[in-house]
Amino acid sequence: MPEGDTVWRATKRLDQALAGKVLTKTDFRVPTLATTDLSGRTMIKVVPRGKHLLMRLSGETTIHSHFRMDGSWHLYRPGERWKGGPDHQVRAVLETESWTAVGYRLPVLELVATSAEETVVGHLGPDLLSPSFDRAVALANLAADPERTISEALLDQRNLAGIGNFYRTEVCFLLGLHPWRPVSTVEVGAAVDLSRRLMKANLVHAAQVTTGVDRPGQRSWVFERPGKPCRRCRTLIRTAPIGEPPRARVSYWCPRCQPEN
């Protein structure tokens, strides 16, 4: 699933290509926006909020999208072949004179008034990648439910925005935290600081890396490595779901490096 750093990189590319440009053609391929035409509007700015992407247009209109599991935005030059997936996965096409932005597999795609953006992102906690990240608020949010597992608390976007399963899993490993440890037994400040440091470091990478080795199969310590030896102690990595359906997520951990107690 794309996480905050992935959305940040996508936002930066889109903003560099589209900001200040007039939309010459728009094509929305979702039922609720099928008749919408935003041609003639100017793209003012593209901004991230956690895992959400906001495209602000002239006329007080914002295009709100969320990647969830496998959504993405791709940029193409006029006439260039689209490579993001088959046509039936296209949800939005935004054209300017010099670029075409194509949104693929976007489960959330809607228009909101720019002044009403808080109705779709106002529930989010402090954004880890924001220059104005409020660490004190994030820590207070996490501490508000001390018996919750650290895994569930870090993944809850109402506490702090941007962390997904990859970073949550890797941070727990690097701090020696068992995934089911309650928040009350954890130094949450260390978890928040490490999460932010890792995400910011990966803003310059096309891939997410926590090991320092940017090569396939070597980028993570435990994430998606069930049954493989721990890179530190060679104990086999374990996996199990954590949380209640439908929000249960797969957790990966080393039982030796991340003891229960």
From TrEMBL:
Which family does the UniProt entry place this protein in? Belongs to the FPG family.
Identify the PROSITE patterns for this entry. Answer: FPG_CAT, ZF_FPG_2
Q: Which Gene3D superfamilies match?
A: 1.10.8.50, MutM-like, N-terminal (3.20.190.10)
Originating organism? Kribbella italica
User: What InterPro entries does this protein map onto?
Assistant: FPG_cat (IPR012319), FPG_N (IPR035937), H2TH_FPG (IPR015886), Nei2_N (IPR044090), Ribosomal_uS13-like_H2TH (IPR010979), Znf_DNA_glyclase/AP_lyase (IPR000214)
Q: What is this protein called?
A: DNA-(apurinic or apyrimidinic site) lyase
> FPG-type domain: which residues?
221-259
**Domain of life from the UniProt record:** Bacteria
GO molecular function terms attached to this record: class I DNA-(apurinic or apyrimidinic site) endonuclease activity; damaged DNA binding; oxidized pyrimidine nucleobase lesion DNA N-glycosylase activity; zinc ion binding
Q: Which lineage do the record's taxonomy fields give for this organism?
A: Bacteria, Bacillati, Actinomycetota, Actinomycetes, Propionibacteriales
Q: Where is the Formamidopyrimidine-DNA glycosylase catalytic domain?
A: 2-75
